[in-house]
Amino acid sequence: MNELVRITEKDLVAVALKPLEKGSIVSYGSGQVTLLDAIPMGHKVALRDIKKGEPVIKYGFPIGEATEDIRQGAHIHTHNLHTLLSGQKEYIYQPTHPAVTRREPGTFMGYPRKVGRPGIRNELWIVPTVGCVNDVAKALVHQAQKLVGGPVEGVYAFPHPYGCSQLGDDQNNTRKVLASLATHPNAGGVLVLGLGCENSGIEQIKPYMGDYDESRVRFLICQQAEDELEEGMKLLEELAVNMQADKRVPCSADQLVVGLKCGGSDGLSGITANPTIGVFSDLLTSMGGSTILTEVPEMFGAETILMGRCENEALFHKTVSLINDFKGYFEAYHMPVYENPSPGNKAGGITTLEDKALGCTQKSGSSPVRGVLAYGEHVENQGLNLLSAPGNDLVAATALAVSGAQLILFSTGRGTPFGCPVPTIKIASNSPLAQHKKNWIDFNAGRLLDGMTLEQLCNELMEYVLAVASGKPARNEQNGFHDLAIFKQGVTL
User: Do 220 and 233 form a contact (C-beta atoms < 8 A)?
Assistant: First the structure.
């Protein structure tokens, strides 16, 4: 068995599949190299001498340049490699026109809705409009546990610190997020809980809700109720009664929207977990379903790959704006654009943002880009969509749910327990993590290194996703982890 993997024939580096000792003679493909340093799992080793200033190639693309002469067999990381990225760029549309083979969609057992796509859960949600009523929402969740059973699959609140003292786009984004949660297909009933004096109250949020099933939403302004807990329970009981007629029925997989996210990545994420998700994305979109890729700052360095796959020039220009506008967001706050990767990423073997981005975008597969979404905007186009949101795990995962994802595929090489408002399926990049954190990890893509093929893993992942869509709980649901994080961009009054 090879101890190293060389991702493409162009690469000047290979990645360690396990911890390797200094002085070892190790194999990659048909080649061998003698290690001058100890190489941790997921880290890179030079396959030939590399001169100072020479681009270092991984995934077939530069991931930075050598800051010193690097000898064959040496460890390549932050001590001898740095990014080549800089500020905003101009781009030229050079379409690659990826081919798509149409496939018959699979099915899952979901809950049809009068408006929009089917839900994969039938939960009671409490959505506070402002942080001041968070504890009221939590108290209602505690009291409403007696309603859980049968078609009522759970009762959850999504507290947050916003909804007041915000201005402009920052305030509008909060309203979009709350309105989208109030109309999400995974909620069979929603109580929108306001205070009464906030500047993003119920009357301000309603216009953002668009066309929705009024039988499934109730509103309560706490300042107008003599006893908000008593009134809130009455409304939740009404919603629970309304949900009793709900049943799972066969639904076509072309109605699924799946968010694509990675976090706590390591040097194997772009070799195992992310390519597995990418092949899954291609399979689902070929069935007529939709996927959403976000984490815009983690596209920096691989953005031209996505731009070339844009289905038309209009989408290309929207993708250019997506990238450059996010760089402008960093610059507006006088922050470095290329602060990534994180300490955990570096410990796992990711050195530069190009390294991270080229691995991250593996999740998008090879399908054409058919939609580019602003933060808080809903998916309309079937196929692969790009979404404006930051890399932060919970903020990005929430953004995916807000844009219509019924579930999230979340690859990780380091492990994380969190869950967002929708099922958050954790996909391990390596088998040791999957074995060590069985209470966090849903799916082990590290088996790609043990002899399984991408096609086998993808088919197994599709079966797992359809099972989760049909009611099988993800680990975050088993653990009771359902959190929300809204993207904060502006001033607080």
Answer: no
